[in-house]
């Protein structure tokens, strides 16, 4: 079964919805809140090959196709994780059919755990929002939305500033969702972050990817906000699920691979990438106060530890 | 069994008395004593309490632990010891249950991918669990005895001759540390008096008895003198999970002055002071005492017009700290998360 190419008209920015949209392309059905793990786990069921190697190759193809359609960091990290999970399982069981059974079972458990991760994160993060806090957030992040929802459920009163987040105005989408929760929200220009920083108490952003150094890759503009927050001594909190941990170690903005910076069809069609504007930037770990993940509250130095435990 | 019921009520009386003592506050209790008392109480619960399965024991300890920590939230040592015992129970149960030493009980990416499903339920009864846990608690008590000595033993590596060391208030750990170094080296100490309790005076008296050249100065002069100081060595009440400190009021000022002059700030604290909590809205570590010390009640007229506060503790963020010296060696603040994962289980962070 060869995957259908994704029609560009239905693209949207936010990474987790992009991944479910990618899932739709392969699975043929749209299911909200489902990470890209699902098409990959259905891939495990499909091939009738008899070897682990064959399975790996077919999964690699699936991941490549997904990335060609949707070039976000989450797809890459999720794919890597899934492949890793295959190799770990194959080490334990030498019989192929038994191995496949276990893999499918674990795949289901993995998917369930991942769908619960947002709630776990919200539970960990909302105590850090004081009553009367003013929060600054950037662009549209579903995890941040969930955290703020949990804070509202805990009867906290706070107000939110959202950056407009050009060029796709994701901030407006976030503001709309927040208004539905009855949270007082103000949309500010991206350029107004330095101006507004003295008024806010904390900054809360999501992440597309969390890199090995403990830094994050997120919508363009995040680095700026982090630098302003550091300059004014405001805590900068990041909320991200653990499947977003990716094996990259960028030392500066140039080190982030082009396939993450630009959209998939830009990469295919553009003549000179220097003319294009990147969609993401890298925020270094020294600017981040704490990361809230479903593995617990981590300091940036703890992130590489987690990655090592998995990949070594 | 009448004997068991009697012991049971005696035990809960003791716990009540302990909690009442904590709540009253009174004279500044030594953290090590609090830790020791907590561990003895927990050992009694394990020994005499009515339980047959590990799960029941953990619930029992958790309930008693919540009672004790609620009495005085700023005494984090109590909560730390409870969590240590819970971890010990999990470990002993795991060992008896036959789980391999390798398998990590903590959440990790690895576990996310390979675990077969839900976690343990601690249901199987093991008769030898009681004895094993009591033995482990005894080991912890022995470890507790040696913490100050272990820290003091590292003094010679950090203090060199003709250095000027600054400290604040009175910390028994720092006192032992400096005394140990003074046996072989000659150095000067400047003690910030740490108003309003002025415990720095007591520290200075004790140090000078050992022949260390000591100077006492007011807190306001900290910045002025800092340029001549080589190292700042302090103690603390609690170490938080992000590597921050809850220490006596005035420590943040000292830390900022040290940062400004790029003077290393060394914190001497034993591992039982490490708490898995993060600084957040709860602010439950804070303790305010009678403002009598700040503005005596004799100043009648002005008292009606103003608010007077006397906070006991200060928060020091991790960026200002250079090194933690504990009974297991020296560590950077960014490494605290690792030490925490070795001491406590994530499910116990919230008691």
UniProtKB/TrEMBL annotation, chain A:
The keyword GTP-binding does not apply. Its main location: cytoplasm. Coiled coil: none annotated. GO terms for cellular component: cytosol; eukaryotic translation initiation factor 2B complex. Keywords: Cytoplasm, Initiation factor, Protein biosynthesis. It is found in: Cytoplasm, Cytosol. Transmembrane segments: none annotated. GO terms for molecular function: guanyl-nucleotide exchange factor activity; translation initiation factor activity. The keyword Isomerase does not apply. It comes from the Eukaryota. Pfam families: IF-2B (PF01008). Acts as a component of the translation initiation factor 2B (eIF2B) complex, which catalyzes the exchange of GDP for GTP on eukaryotic initiation factor 2 (eIF2) gamma subunit. Its guanine nucleotide exchange factor activity is repressed when bound to eIF2 complex phosphorylated on the alpha subunit, thereby limiting the amount of methionyl-initiator methionine tRNA available to the ribosome and consequently global translation is repressed. Component of the translation initiation factor 2B (eIF2B) complex which is a heterodecamer of two sets of five different subunits: alpha, beta, gamma, delta and epsilon. Subunits alpha, beta and delta comprise a regulatory subcomplex and subunits epsilon and gamma comprise a catalytic subcomplex. Within the complex, the hexameric regulatory complex resides at the center, with the two heterodimeric catalytic subcomplexes bound on opposite sides. Belongs to the eIF-2B alpha/beta/delta subunits family. This is Translation initiation factor eIF2B subunit alpha. It comes from Junco hyemalis (Dark-eyed junco).
From TrEMBL, chain B:
It comes from the Eukaryota. GO terms for biological process: animal organ development; central nervous system development. GO terms for molecular function: guanyl-nucleotide exchange factor activity; translation initiation factor activity. It is found in: Cytoplasm, Cytosol. Gene3D superfamilies: Translation initiation factor eif-2b, domain 2. Pfam families: IF-2B (PF01008). Keywords: Cytoplasm, Initiation factor, Protein biosynthesis. One of its GO terms (cellular component) is cytosol. Belongs to the eIF-2B alpha/beta/delta subunits family. Acts as a component of the translation initiation factor 2B (eIF2B) complex, which catalyzes the exchange of GDP for GTP on eukaryotic initiation factor 2 (eIF2) gamma subunit. Its guanine nucleotide exchange factor activity is repressed when bound to eIF2 complex phosphorylated on the alpha subunit, thereby limiting the amount of methionyl-initiator methionine tRNA available to the ribosome and consequently global translation is repressed. Component of the translation initiation factor 2B (eIF2B) complex which is a heterodecamer of two sets of five different subunits: alpha, beta, gamma, delta and epsilon. Subunits alpha, beta and delta comprise a regulatory subcomplex and subunits epsilon and gamma comprise a catalytic subcomplex. Within the complex, the hexameric regulatory complex resides at the center, with the two heterodimeric catalytic subcomplexes bound on opposite sides. This is Translation initiation factor eIF2B subunit beta.
């Amino acid at each position: 079964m060869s995957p259908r190419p994704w029609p560009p008209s239905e693209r949207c920015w936010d990474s987790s919805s992009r991944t479910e949209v990618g899932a739709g392309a392969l699975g043929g059905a749209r299911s909200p809140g489902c990470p890209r793990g699902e098409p990959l786990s259905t891939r495990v069921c499909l091939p009738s090959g008899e070897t682990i190697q064959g399975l790996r190759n077919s999964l690699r193809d699936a991941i490549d196709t997904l990335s060609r359609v949707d070039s976000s960091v989450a797809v890459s990290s999720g794919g890597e994780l899934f492949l890793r999970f295959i190799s770990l399982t194959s080490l334990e069981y030498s019989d192929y059919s038994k191995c496949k059974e276990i893999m499918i079972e674990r795949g289901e458990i993995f998917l369930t755990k991942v769908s619960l991760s947002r709630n776990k994160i919200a539970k960990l993060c909302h105590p850090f929002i004081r009553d009367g806090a003013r929060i600054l957030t950037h662009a549209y992040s579903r995890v941040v939305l969930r955290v703020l929802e949990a804070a509202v459920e805990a009867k906290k009163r706070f107000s939110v500033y959202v950056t407009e987040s050009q060029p796709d105005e994701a901030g407006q989408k976030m503001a709309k969702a927040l208004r539905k929760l009855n949270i007082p929200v103000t949309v500010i220009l991206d350029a107004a972050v330095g101006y507004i920083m003295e008024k806010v108490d904390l900054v809360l952003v999501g992440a597309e990817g969390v890199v090995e150094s403990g830094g994050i890759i997120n919508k363009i503009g995040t680095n700026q906000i982090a630098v302003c927050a550091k300059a004014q001594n405001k805590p900068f909190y990041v909320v991200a699920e653990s499947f977003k941990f990716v094996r990259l170690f960028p030392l500066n903005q140039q080190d982030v691979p082009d396939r993450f910076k630009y959209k998939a069809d830009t990469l295919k069609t553009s003549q000179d990438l220097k003319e294009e504007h990147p969609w993401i930037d890298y925020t270094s770990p020294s600017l981040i106060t704490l990361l809230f993940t479903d593995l617990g509250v981590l300091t940036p130095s703890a992130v590489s530890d987690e990655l090592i435990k998995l990949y070594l | 069994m009448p004997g068991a019921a009697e012991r049971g009520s005696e035990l809960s009386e003791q716990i009540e008395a302990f909690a009442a003592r904590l709540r009253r506050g009174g004279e500044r209790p030594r953290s090590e004593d609090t830790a020791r008392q907590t561990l003895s109480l927990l050992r009694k619960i394990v020994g005499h309490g009515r339980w047959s399965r590990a799960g029941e024991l953990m619930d029992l300890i958790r309930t008693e632990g919540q009672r004790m920590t609620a009495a005085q939230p700023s005494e984090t040592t109590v909560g730390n010891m409870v969590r240590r015992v819970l971890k010990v129970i999990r470990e002993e149960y795991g060992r008896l249950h036959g789980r391999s030493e390798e398998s990590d009980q903590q959440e990790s990416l690895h576990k996310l991918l390979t675990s077969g499903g839900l976690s343990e339920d601690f249901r199987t009864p093991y008769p030898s669990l009681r004895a094993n846990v009591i033995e482990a608690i005894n080991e912890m008590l022995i470890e507790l005895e040696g913490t100050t000595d272990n820290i003091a033993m590292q003094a010679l590596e950090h203090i060199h001759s003709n250095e000027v060391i600054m400290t604040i208030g009175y910390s028994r750990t720092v006192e032992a540390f400096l005394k140990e170094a003074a046996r072989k080296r000659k150095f000067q100490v400047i003690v910030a008096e740490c108003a309003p309790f002025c415990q720095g005076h007591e520290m200075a008296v004790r140090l000078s008895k050992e022949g260390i050249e000591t100077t006492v100065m007011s807190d306001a002069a900290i910045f002025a003198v800092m340029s001549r100081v080589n190292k700042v060595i302090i103690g603390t009440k609690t170490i938080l999970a992000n590597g921050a400190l809850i220490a006596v009021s005035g420590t943040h000022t000292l830390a900022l002055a040290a940062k400004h002059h790029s003077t290393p700030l060394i914190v001497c604290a034993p591992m039982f002071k490490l708490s898995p909590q993060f600084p957040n809205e709860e602010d439950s570590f804070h303790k305010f005492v009678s403002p009598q010390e700040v503005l005596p009640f004799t100043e009648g007229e002005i008292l009606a017009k103003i608010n007077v506060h006397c906070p006991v503790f200060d928060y020091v963020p991790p960026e200002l700290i250079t090194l933690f010296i504990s009974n297991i060696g020296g560590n950077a603040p960014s490494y605290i998360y690792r030490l925490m994962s070795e001491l406590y289980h994530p499910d116990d962070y919230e008691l």
